[in-house]
Amino acid sequence: MQAIARSGVPVVSMRIYSDSRRCSVPTWDVNELMPALESAGFTQAARSIKSISLSVSTKVKTDWQEIWGAVDDLSEVDRAYHNARLRPQARLLSQDDPTAVAEGNYPGIARLLKQMLNLERLELHLYNTLSGVAESYAKVFTYIADELILTSLKHCTLRGLYSDEESLLKFLRAHEGLVELKLCNMHLVSGSWTPVFAQLCAMESIQWIILSDIWASGIGLIHLAPKGTSSSSWSSDGTNSYPCVRGTIVHTRAISRAEILDNGLDFARRPSGRQLGSPAFQRYFKARQVEYGPP
To answer: What is the DSSP letter of 153?
Structure first.
């Protein structure tokens, strides 16, 4: 990006690790890079960018002596799993490690996107590299909601991010011109999805909403089958749903403007009982881990 800034060549679209599995830029590194980018003239160069797809990650260990020291401390069985790349916990920071939750992990993404005031398409993906839930990274989206207003934004995809209800509502209200919104593996660490769904229904320009694998604190996965439909009417092939003890949980839906006008975003009660250990659930679970971590 420094080279782009110095070259003066107008760049319309950027893709940064968006198609590379398990390759992401740590949010800490983005924040550390920003002063050099700004001094290189990136603010001026970024005005031509209309589309960005960016994959970022939580904090990662970079001290190989520390990593191999952690491997040496593993039991014989765990070391064998580590060497087989089945349990790589020795390479991961814990979710409450001081470096993983330091404030420098959070503001860089908002600071970067603020340079791109003419964005029309935004795709942001977070990969979790911690040995636990990355709820503290809801602050990444809080910074985005507090600091970012993209008046030309039409298409937005948020994958793997954490947020609270207030920040997500603030972002949506600042971008009511959205035509398409995709929320994939999105976690609300506090609050409810109900006000968010009401806000989405009120956004008159939106034509498509794609919801996939959205979560709420204290509730878990949100069941996305329309209210009034039987969960048994949904295929449980693992693409959009999987079976549980008393029905089928729908985790992915594409919802058109016409459906929103007819039915709103009112979903059926989630079927009770644990998920079944089916091929459909295993496909869902494995795909989610590959896409969002931890490794």
So the answer is: -
Residue 113, exposed/middle/buried by CB under 10 A (0-12, 13-18, 19+)?
Answer: buried
Instruction: Please state whether the peptide bond connecting residue 294 to the residue before it is cis, i.e. omega within 30 degrees of 0.
Output: yes
SS3 (DSSP) at 115: coil
Pairing of strands 215-216, 187-190: parallel
Task: At 231, give phi and psi (nearest 5°).
Answer: -65, -25
**Digit-coded pLDDT (tens) for 34-84:** 999 888 888 888 899 999 999 999 998 776 566 555 655 555 655 555 554
What whole-number distance in Å separates Cα of residue 10 and Cα of residue 1?
12
Residues 6 or more apart in contact with residue 53 via CB below 8 angstroms: 14, 15, 16, 18, 123, 125
Cα separation of 187 and 151, whole Å?
25
Question: How far apart (Å, rounded) are the C-alpha atoms in residues 3 and 40?
Answer: 9
Amino acid (one-letter) located at 49? I
Phi-psi region of 238 (alpha: psi -120 to 50; beta: other; left: phi over 0): left
Q: Measure Cα distances from 241 to 209, 229, 274 in Å.
A: 17, 14, 14
Q: Is 293 left (phi over 0), alpha (psi -120 to 50) or beta?
A: left
Three-state DSSP state, 266: coil
| Residues 6+ away with beta carbon under 8 Å from 226 | 259, 263, 266, 267, 268
Ordered alpha helix ranges (H), the chain: 2-7, 27-39, 42-45, 64-72, 76-83, 108-113, 138-147, 165-174, 194-202, 257-263, 279-292
11 within 8 A of 45, measured Cβ to Cβ:
yes
Backbone phi, then psi, for 243, in 5-degree steps? -80, 145
Write out pLDDT tens, residues 151-166: 999 999 999 999 999 9
